Amino acid sequence: MNISAIRQEYHRRICKEVVRIRRGTELEYPNSADAGNKSSIKIAWGIIQRIGCSMSYEGVKEQTAGDLFEEITKDFLERSFGLLHHLRPGKWHYSTTQTVISRFYQYEHLAQLEETIKKYPELEASLRGDYIIKPDIVITRSPITDDEVNDSVEIISQGDHCARLTPLREVNHPQIVPILHASISCKWTIRSDRAQNTRTEALNLIRNRKGPLPHVVAVVGEPLPSRIAALAMGTGDLDCVYHFALAELQEAISEIDNQDQMDMLRIMVEGRRLRDISDLPFDLAI
After folding, report:
1. Which of 68, 78, 216, 263 is the most core-located residue (most Cβ within 10 A)?
2. Whole-prediction pTM value?
3. How far apart (Å, rounded) are the C-alpha atoms in residues 105 and 141?
4. Whole domain around residue 58: which residue ranges?
């Protein structure tokens, strides 16, 4: 199965499990749309029609829809990134269990800081910050054995003093600690407070690491480019934002002839701040 087929299956599951039609006082609208914004409703309708969603009115709470979006996106990445194993080999693990980042190599020192604060409460005002993050989706890599390193030719010998500190060698760890490869925030819809939370988490991942920075990205289902821009515009925190159906979003906006939204979308795409979900597995292979 190729990336295109996996993307289609991704959309099929989102249609079946996440997308629901809500009834307002005068109109019906998809649950990704803002009922108070006509452009949001029109664009959302255009997207779900293009990915083949049927009309389902079965109730799904907003939090439940967000959780399902995370799980389906995780499954998409596991399948699609798995196709690229020859480009980025490794023992990869995928999770949506809201694992705290202190369980990963680059951030395990934060657990020690947390314990110190608990032991000495008087330090809390000075030391505590919003550094204990639980990403929506994490992709981790397990350290490798020396047998794997020396698979084709001997690269490293037991007992020598080379490469004794790198986290990639399993022998360097008293206990195996996974390496955080990617932290992925998932937002089915975007409101201003959610955008700020995502940016804050991204900045804390950057500032508090000891080791290589993981990929820090967001995946969104939001139909309005002007709201996606709250996450995508600027540089320095998120690597990039990925839309679950970018081509369909572009077509939907062209259909309603909203020049302001199309201009904003074009700025983000051409400025390398917004890509399609199918780009993400390839970017994770970098």
Report:
1. 216
2. 0.93
3. 10
4. 3-151+163-284
